[in-house]
Amino acid sequence: MLRLGVIIIVIALVGTVLSGLAAYRVHDQELAIDRIALARAIDVHASLVQDRLTERELLARVASGLFRAPSVIKANMLEPLRSSIYAFKTDFVVASWIARLKSDELSVAQAELRQAGFSNPTIRNYDDTPLDKGMASGPLDVLMDLEPRNAETSKFPGAVLDRQPIIGPMLARAMAEGKPVASDPTPLLRADGPIGIVLAAPVVPQGATGPAGFVTFSYEIGPLLLTNDDLSLFSVALKDPRNASDELVANDQGAVTGRTRGPDDPAPSSTRTVSFGNHDWSLIYYAKSNAVRRAQQTAAIVGVIGLALTGIICGLFGFVAYNNLRLSREIQVRIGFERRLTAVIDELNHRVKNILAVIQSIVTRTLRHGSDIDVARELLIGRIHAMSNVVTLLSESQWQGVQLRGLFEARAIPHAERIAVSGPDITVSARAAQSLSLLFFELASHSDEGLSLVGKHPHITAKWEVAGDDSAAVFQFRWEELNTSEATRRPDSDFGLILLDRVAPEALGGTSKRYFTEASYVYELTAPMETVIDMTERDRTEQLSAPVKPPR
Asked: Looking at residue 75, what is its pLDDT?
């Protein structure tokens, strides 16, 4: 026992160490997998965002390139471009034409705006205050046309955008650099409108040294930069270029709001930079799940499973070692069981031969040992009729079994009206029904000499019961002929003795005995209930009798 205890302790220590190593390895692998998956998802998102930005910058370049020698004072400059810009993308908020006008061109521009039907054609400051022309030292950037035209946008043309805090610096930079430039984030359409970015592309006519105006496209930041799948591994924010500590985030509806990062806020998982309008934009990514905590939980589960397996192995090892002698006895029992199984298989191989032998024995023994040819003929017809009757009953039930009481009907055995039958309702198998039917006929056919009625009480009783539960249940049958003695009862025939003492008990796997008491003749049969009902035979018969399903 001491040696066994030392071995179990060693196994427990080894299992504990291996469980710890497995948990540590799983922790590292989970962290690595989560990081790789998150990095790949972020790279895909940043690549898609950059593709969207490149497409929209290309749209601005194409639109500006379509202007060859524009008349900057016209109010319908976007008319030739409407079909072109919609062929590229339709997710811009407003596309506009901003003309650079000299002071002497403002009156002509105002007349053009009035003729175009805009609601406020007056040339004015961006905040709708009157324009002081005397303060203008050079060309003014005037909004002359836009798309789409609706009740909300038709009031914007005529505004001078030079001093607008966001648009003005953007236009100045685009004019200086001669290429598309994006503005800082700003509300679109109105002060409380969606936050977006305006992209301005300078239009330089052939032979000119400076731009004649600008084609601009404004986009909402949410769909452009911050779109994200609800099932993704991360959330994304845009670093506000106006304040390094601020971020712009979009909610579930795509509305963008600003927030200020605090010292207690979680650190970003990664940062990516995209380029748009000659401007670098920083996308900040935050993991939605805590990879470290999840890795720790997974490692803890692996460790607990390892310790549990270690405990189970130790317990099993001790149990096996402690019960070595019992296992040896169980092996011997198994060998005996296999021998009995072989005997049962041999029994099944001869079952068909036994059935034919019973039929042959019915005919030969009935005729051979009959002292009177009429009596022999009557017994032979009765026995064959008993077998025919049970076959009829089985056919009616599709060979699923027969109610035991049905074997005592008048058509099955003689003197059925004189027999008192009692016992629970039992459906016996086809094989058991054939043996019991011959058995009951043989008992009833030899009881006629001893029958004598006293009052209204029958003098033959047939009763059965089931003792035990489940697989240990036993079928017990008792036949008793009252007021009968060995002297008055007709002796059993040679075939009857074989049937009573050997054929019926062996068919049911049980035992039988018959004897005379002082006032009766008794026959008892005991058999396992599982051989009487034989569910395996019934299931097999049910499968064979099931109709074949037609092919679809």
From this structure: 78
